[in-house]
UniProtKB/TrEMBL annotation:
It comes from uncultured Blastococcus sp. GO terms for molecular function: nickel cation binding. The keyword Chaperone applies. The keyword Chaperone applies. Keywords: Chaperone. This is Urease accessory protein UreD. InterPro entries: UreD.
Length: 237
């Protein structure tokens, strides 16, 4: 199944953000949940192998857009021949985009491809996160391939591909993490190199990127948060 989501944010009167385009078809619906925020809502179980979701986000100068989802996505294998599912996000940002979706869980025998392509103007702000867990409780891990391409004013800022799970070159047991998280922030200051438990933060032009790997998603997410400048402290029992 093919899914298409389109959201356009533009500046409105009094410094507010208006969303003249908020529409979706296929396996996702999109709902406006705040003055400048939308949530993606799954309308069908999946994605299944062969499904393709195209998400277009446009944020004009002076506008703010916050994008969330309401639940984790569970990528499932296709029947018959193995084909991947895909989610491809293309963002054009001159204002501020905060993109933080719920985790993707890749079931056994499934292969999910995630792509983020962001084109930023000078002065644009971007925060984007990715959280992945290979396999549900008690099952073998699936396969996930994630690519991020970010340009600012036409110049490359970040271009990276991470592959996890059976079939990926860097996934070699016993060093085979089932959980992965990353946060990239551009346009709101810089940060020095820092390391944590199976986590690293690296500086980028005008920002930084933090990644972490491990066996459990909640620990990986916490490791990223601990290296995130200005992030609130988490309270643990």
């Amino acid at each position: 199944m093919r899914t298409v989501v389109e959201v356009v944010a533009r500046p409105g009167p009094g410094g507010r953000t208006v969303l003249p385009v908020v529409r979706a078809s296929g396996q996702l619906a999109v709902r406006r949940t705040g003055p400048a925020s939308v949530h993606l809502v799954a309308t069908a179980f999946g994605p299944l192998g062969g499904d393709d979701a195209q998400i277009s986000l446009v944020v004009a100068e002076g506008a703010v857009l916050v994008v969330r989802s309401v639940a984790a996505a569970i990528a499932l294998p296709a029947r018959g021949r193995p084909v991947p599912s895909a989610q491809r996000i293309h963002a054009t940002v001159a204002g501020s985009l905060d993109l933080r979706l719920e985790p993707t869980v890749v079931a056994a025998r499934a292969h999910h491809v995630a792509e983020l392509a962001a084109s930023l103007a000078d002065g644009a702000l971007l925060t984007a996160t990715e959280q992945v867990l290979l396999g549900r409780s008690g099952e073998e891990p699936g396969r996930w391939t994630g690519t991020a391409r970010i340009e600012r004013a036409g110049r490359p800022v970040l271009h990276t591909t991470v592959g996890l799970g059976p079939g990926e070159q860097a996934w070699l047991p016993p060093a085979a993490p089932r959980a992965y998280a990353s946060t990239v922030q551009i346009g709101d200051g810089t940060a020095d190199v820092a390391t944590g438990e199976d986590a690293v933060r690296l500086p980028l032009p005008g920002g930084w990127v933090t990644t972490a790997w491990g066996a459990e998603l909640h620990r990986v997410v916490r490791a990223v948060d601990e290296l995130t400048p200005g992030a609130p402290a988490r309270v643990t029992a």
